[in-house]
Amino acid sequence: MDRGALATYVAAVTPSAPSDKWDTALVPCPACGNEGQITGDPDPEWEPDWDVSDGEGCVSGMYVSKIDLQCHSFECRVCGLTLDADDLPFGSLGDVTLTDKEYDLSEATTFFGRQAAEDEWEDYR
C-alpha cells in the first residue's frame, strides 16, 4: 500500500477507546507500533467530591478518579497480533490505568454509580 492508502486503512481499523463499559484502552502494539486495543476487567477508584457548606468542608458525593484495568487480552487490527493473558508480558503489556488526564472520566462516574446501585439492589431480590 502507498502511504495514503495505509493511513486510510489504519484510521479505519483503529478502535476507539475506552469502551462504554470502560473495559478497553488503546496502547501501542508491540509488533507494529500502531494503536491496538487491550481489554480487561475495570476496577474504578472512587474519591470524595468535596464542597463547602456554611464555611465547612463536606463531602457532596463521589467520583471516579481513575480506573485500573486488569488486562487479559490484546488485539491489533492493523497487523493482526493477538495476545491472551499469558502472552501479554512477552509483548511488554500489562495492566493499564485510565486517568482523567488521558480520558474524560465523568461518564465513568455515572456508569459505575449505576452498576454499584444495581449490585446493591441484587441483595434485596
Describe this protein's structure.
With 125 residues, the chain is of the alpha+beta class. Strands 1, 2, 3, 4 and 5 form a five-stranded antiparallel sheet that branches. Helix content is 22%, strand content 41%. It has one domain.
Which ranges are low-confidence, i.e. pLDDT below 50, for 5 or more consecutive residues? none
Return Rg in Å: 19 Å
The rounded distance between the terminal residues' Cα atoms is: 58 Å
| Mean pLDDT figure | 86
Strand content: 35-45%
Helix coverage percent: 10-25%
Number of helix segments? 2
Task: Classify the secondary structure makeup into a structural class.
Answer: alpha+beta
Annotation, overall tally of beta strands: 5
Task: Based on Cα principal axes, name the global outline.
Answer: elongated
Can you give keywords for this protein?
alpha+beta; five-stranded antiparallel β-sheet; 5 strands; 41% strand; 125 residues
Walk me through the topology:
Layout: H1 3-13, E1 24-28, E2 35-53, E3 56-75, E4 82-84, E5 96-99, H2 106-122
Antiparallel strand pairs: 1-2, 2-3, 3-4, 3-5
